[in-house]
Design goal:
A hairpin with a 4-residue loop joins strand 14 (about 195-200) and strand 15 (about 205-210). The strands form 3 sheets. Strands 1, 2, 8, 9, 10, 11, 18 and 19 form an 8-stranded mixed beta sheet that branches. Strands 5, 6, 12, 13, 14, 15, 16 and 17 form an 8-stranded mixed beta sheet that branches. This protein has helices at about 10-20, 50-55, 90-105, 155, 215-230, 275-295, 300-330, 335-345, 350-355, 365-370, 375-380, and strands at about 1-5, 25-30, 45, 60-65, 65-70, 80, 85-90, 110, 115-120, 125-130, 135-145, 165-175, 180-185, 195-200, 205-210, 235, 240-245, 255, 260. With about 400 residues, it is α+β, with helices and mostly antiparallel strands. The chain has 3 domains: about 1-40 and about 90-165 and about 245-320, 3-Layer(bba) Sandwich (FAD/NAD(P)-binding domain); about 60-90 and about 165-245, D-Amino Acid Oxidase, Chain A, domain 2; about 330-380, no CATH class. It is globular. The protein starts with a strand and ends in an 11-residue tail after the last helix. It binds flavin-adenine dinucleotide (FAD). Flavin-adenine dinucleotide binds near residues 147, 263, 268, 275 and 279. Flavin-adenine dinucleotide binds near residues 169, 245 and 277.
């Protein structure tokens, strides 16, 4: 019997597999797709902090950026600039492969084309039912980690509930003209309640995409045709990709002999939908808890509960404030959004924000609370009670 089954060979599952195999555990990764890094749908923007913390390597970085242009609904762009690198655009398909290579080098095994249909935690083992070549087969291990991305059906089967809220991400790879920095587009016509982007990945190629609760395909078509008519992009290079993104965590992320990590657990920034860094941070916490629980041979729910306690301690407030800000933002009309940008530019709020050491690509909570408390903005935001004290 294996020590650990990791279900899902995305970046979070493979990171976890590499760390667990690295401490001598017998790890098998079960991936439903025939190839790793296939059909990824992700802009691949992460912070330098994420790149460094997990030693992801400069080889993955396609571009670095310290600026962006935001287009509010009025279309009048606002430039954002900070001295240091804010974001690294990485080759996201390559990330999956690099993470899997690391896991294999550490001794983890992979079974591709192995969709897990069910898991059953038992007294002394957990059983995963996979389907290969039309045949069902059972695999057993001491513990299973669900890292299936947005697909949280297995977590639901393990009695852990569903993510509380989600959005659909839609993206196409496109030819681009001279676009020197990331562009972000806001407004009800473009991406109601969310945002759209154009991310240059090389001098001639980029990613155009958006988040939308409904009809993502229609909004994406509209975005592509608008960018084309402005001469910013040429043809789409392939069929667009679509994927769900959880905006709130699962009700519970542990059970007897089971943990859930990454997008499957909803460890995602609700402001932007970015999940790579938070997923990796939570995976590292899972590694520590699993190591201990396996050493002590105690994989009961109460032994694994510390995982959730620990990741919520690290990420919970960020996720809470981020989701609150997201709901506030979703209520704003285009006129209100335009007015907020006007006031924020005229009153130096944006400048102050960019200088605020508490604002970083990943950690938004404190800066969000500081902005919504600005007197100049209170009348527009209408004062929703700020439900958080923040002291990370
Ligand atoms: C359009 C879009 C843009 C994004 N841009 C960014 C960004 O710029 N920065 C950022 O940080 N995040 C971004 N994200 C989010 C990011 O892609 C996710 O947070 C990240 O992929 C999470 O990794 P994961 O390993 O948890 O899940 P995934 O990458 O989804 O991997 C899960 C794996 O599990 C496999 N699997 C699923 N079910 C089963 C099963 N039953 N059995 C076996 N295998 C299974 C899947 O095939 C997949 O390989 C974006 C998302 C979208 C949709």
């Amino acid at each position: 019997m294996r020590d650990v089954l990791v279900i899902g060979g995305g970046p979070i599952g493979s990171y976890l597999a590499s760390r667990l195999a690295g401490i001598g555990l017998d790890v098998l990764v079960l991936e439903k797709r025939a190839g790793l890094g296939n059909k990824v749908c992700c802009a691949g923007i992460i912070s330098q902090e994420c790149l460094d913390s997990f030693a992801l390597g400069n080889g993955l970085v396609l571009r670095r950026g310290n600026s962006a242009r935001v287009f509010p609904p009025s279309g009048r762009p606002v430039g954002l600039w900070r001295e240091k690198t804010q974001a690294c655009i990485i080759d996201r398909a390559a990330l999956d492969l690099v993470m899997a290579d690391r896991a294999r080098a550490a001794g983890a095994d992979y079974a591709l084309s192995s969709p897990v249909k069910d898991i059953q935690p038992g007294e002394d083992r957990v059983t995963a039912e996979i389907e290969t070549g039309g045949r069902r087969q059972n695999l057993e291990a001491r513990v299973a980690v669900i890292a299936t991305g947005f697909d949280s059906r297995l977590a639901e089967r393990a009695g852990l509930g569903k993510p509380g809220d989600f959005v659909i991400g839609a993206q196409a790879e496109v030819e681009i003209g001279d676009i020197p920095e990331v562009e972000v587009y806001l407004g009800r016509e473009t991406a109601p309640g969310f945002f759209a982007w154009l991310v240059p990945t090389s001098p001639s190629r980029g990613l155009a995409g958006l988040l939308a609760r409904r009809k993502p395909g229609i909004y994406l078509e509209r975005l592509l045709s608008s960018l084309r008519s402005q001469g910013k992009i040429g043809l789409a290079e392939a069929e667009p990709g679509y994927r769900g993104i959880s905006l709130r965590p699962l009700e519970r992320t542990y059970a007897r002999r089971v943990l859930v990590v990454g997008d499957a657990a909803g460890q995602v920034k609700p402001t932007t939908g970015g999940g790579i860094y938070f997923g990796l941070l939570a995976a590292e916490i899972a590694v520590q808890k699993l190591k201990r629980a396996l050493e002590q041979d105690d994989l009961s729910a109460s032994s694994l509960a510390g995982y959730e306690k620990e990741w919520k301690k690290r990420l919970g407030k960020e996720l809470g404030v981020g989701y609150w800000a997201r709901k506030l933002y979703e209520r704003l009309s285009d006129r209100q959004l335009d007015r907020i940008f006007e006031i924020a530019v005229d009153n130096g709020i944006i400048e102050a924000l960019l200088e605020d050491k508490d604002l970083s690509f990943d950690w938004h909570g404190k800066a969000i609370l500081r902005v919504v408390r600005q007197k100049a903005l209170v009348s527009i935001l209408g004062m929703m009670k700020v439900p958080f004290q923040f002291g990370r």
